User: Fold these one by one.
Assistant:
Number 1:
Amino acid sequence: MVTPRVIVVGTGIAGLVAALRAARTHTVTLVTKAELGESNTRYAQGGIAAVMFPDDSVGAHIDDTLAAGAGLNSREAVEILCAEGPDRIRDLVALGVEFDHENGLLARGREAAHSSARVLHAGGDATGAGIESALVRAVRASNVSVLEFTFVRDLLVVDGQVRGVETVDSAGAIRRLEADAVILASGGAGQLYAHTTNPAVATGDGAAAAFRAGARLADVEFYQFHPTSLAVPGNFLVSEAVRGEGALLLDATGRRFMADWHPDAELAPRDVVARGIARQVAVQDGAPVLLDATGLGAAFLEARFPGIDRVSRAHGFDWSREPIPVTPAAHYWMGGIETDLRGRSSLPGLYAVGEVASTGVHGANRLASNSLLESLVFAWRSVDSLGQPWPEDHPAPDTVLRDPIGSDGEPFVRAELQHLLWDTAGMFRSAPALESARSRIAGWSAPSGLSFAALEDRNLLELAGLLVGAALARRESRGAHFRDDYPEADPRFARHSTVQVTPIAPGPHATKETSHALV
Ligand code: SIN
């Protein structure tokens, strides 16, 4: 019997876990545009949330996740995440990941909007790096074929079924790789924004390729901004776990200000803290707010947060003695390729796991440290459903279709797009700002060429148009999506948004102009 083939795209936790698990039953090719393991996962600090302690409960983790998600989570997906999470953590340990321990027990941190300390970490604040290095070792020792520095430009679709990928190598050579299934685990798109905690590779390539192939995307307007990155070029993440250990946010005069915005102050949901900081910065004429960790002591800071300690000192800050300047930055995309509870997209043969997917777990605002867990749980579930019949697609009746972007506008400039989105589709949005972004985006021509930068630019421009359109359509404020002109949540909008490219044979709802629907 011929062993079925699967292509996994992306080498963060979702891709590595999917590849390792699939390799037991499939011939696996793992493709990444960078070196193996370069991904958002590698830079994750705070950790991975899971119910591993007797004073915690799956029910409490579910409740916290739903509360953060502001009415837009899929309850079933959240229940799966929280219930299956602990077993998947044990599987991760079996794959070689070493979490930190204290007095012989797993160590745990607290992060915002968690009712219990349930965030496991590794190497203090090097959790992602610890996970990546163990999984990369396991992949290198497995029979998974790895293609590094290989860009997945598009998906191969034959008779409505995904049959592989079209790749471009760093010399510009195009190749077709065929497979029985493709698992996209290609991460988020933080590079849409001028300020982001994400690495340079986070350009939304998988979501853009899936969209062009006809897969439905969901909730693309929901982008999470992390409240605290170091206010220096590069926006190095300063983990929420620092506030979980007791660090305070201070205004320029040294006053704690977050209690003005939420009773949980520094540990309020992430979107609330990010907006609170941004408003305070505006009041202070652009001066950054300060994170005061001096009460935690030099020895503790160095041992618990060695990475932040090293980087902040390299920038000239001794955070054990003085508060450090912090600022919000784009961090995590809740939207992505719409999937069911087994990672299956609307396009037969295409799975999506990790940040590129929209499973419904995170709703309108992701609970801190739930993303590594989501990647793990849903990568596992996707692989376990390989080979099963594809469920019939039931698009919502008003799912609206759109035409791809044009090719006769101004030359595209990535930095201009990043500033445009930061200014108009960032933490604060409004119809006039989003409309102006929409017309600027429409004025750029689709970047062409086979360099990785050109391929990324094409994807960023595609996704920017979708994000702005969805943000315009959602005339309310919910979770990470805040509209100055509609500052309250509106129950009529307590639904997912979807977007889909015009198919080859347009259905009755096809339109040239409108690209988004709330369903
Ligand atoms: C952090 O360490 O603050 C990041 C955790 C996360 O984004 O889940």
Note: The mean pLDDT is 93.
Number 2:
Amino acid sequence: MKQKKLWGGRFSTSTNDLMETYSASIGFDWRLYKYDIAGSIAHARMLCSQKILSDDEFRDIEQGLIDIQEDIEQGRFEWNESYEDIHMNIEANLTQRIGDAGKKLHTGRSRNDQIATDMRLYLREEIDSLLILITNVQQELVKLAAQEADTIMPGYTHMQSAQPVTFGHHLLAWNEMVDRDYSRISECRKRVNSSPLGSAALAGTSYDIDRQMTADELGFTEVAKNSLDAVSDRDFILEFNAHASLLMIHLSRMSEELVLWTSDGFNFVDLGDGFCTGSSIMPQKKNPDVAELTRGKCGRVTGNLMSLLMLMKGQPLAYNRDNQEDKEPLFDTVDTLSICLQVFEAMVPGIKANRKKMREAANKGYSTATDLADYLVRKSVPFRDAHEVVGKVVGYAVEQEMQLENIALGKLRDFSTDIEQDVYEVLTLEGSVNARDHFGGTAPKQVVWAASQAAKILAARFVKAS
Ligand code: ARG
């Protein structure tokens, strides 16, 4: 039913029906109810402590808002599009419940500082959940890395076999990518956690308010310093979505590798049946849909970032209605990130390495050629000359269709008389990975150590927070 607008005093005719639908945000911003109510209670308590509201008025407002929250959570609350948004749906309902005191709630505030407050409270809580989900994914990656510390696979550059690496090392590389996402998002939380409340419409308010009190009650660590900036700033949303995009890009890159590795050409890993689908026509198929969907969902999150960037471009100070358009992209980004992280957490432990295939592939690509060059360097051959010699050895091996380690010593010595019997120790895959035994290197020993360090850091994260 069409309702009289709470802001309708100076209007003589009612809103155009199309305009009503066009401008309403209640269809999506209802999700902010919890934060809107928390913000309103904090604001009302402050007005009471400043003697702007009486004790009785505050008590009625607080109880009314608690009851509204209960009704919303029980699915009993009636949303009304003609009240436009979450703020006015709640305020109108409050006034119906408690009478005139409800009309006093909006004293000294505006929907402009209210929505900025709601969005910050919402995002702060979502960031806290996402940080836990990111950590869970990291924990699974690190666990699997420890298990696969000495599994040898080809490492690639340009998608050409380059040098052997351990699968555990590769998984720890994934962990590093996600670890940076964790720190970026935690860092951004600090800037989310600032209170715009009290900025009112744009200029502040003529009432004697206490902004520190509302900020403290809502757990904000800072009071926004400029009212014009506070009602118009959406940097925190853009910044978060930029970090979210990067995280999705990382998940997408991992997904791409999983898609490759599960393909016939590679056959490096098997993903559990629970995370693949079959084909309705080809009975043999087991498709890595989770990975593909994640790769695809990266598009919507980065698309949301573009929407948000363009939303802010060209907006003059202070609040403009454009800002209502920040919600759907942000909600979608948060929801997408959350489901992708949950799915990854569940899928990673089921990644089963096909060690035989990985090893065969590592053997095929002359991936120990660099080791042969390094060997010659240790025998005092300058690196450039060693590189040249090994290039010739590889050319010979390609011609003969054989592995480096299967070339007889006599033949190898045709290329360089510095080559001796001990060369075979470096031509093996184990010799190659074990030799890279330094901080950040691929040697199994390093991977075991790095995985245990990472596990300790991850385990300490939320112990510290609580
Ligand atoms: N629904 C609006 C938004 O999301 C709330 C603030 C509206 N303020 C206004 N002056 N119309 O931004």
Note: Residues 17-107 form a domain with the Fumarase C; Chain B, domain 1 fold (CATH 1.10.275.10).
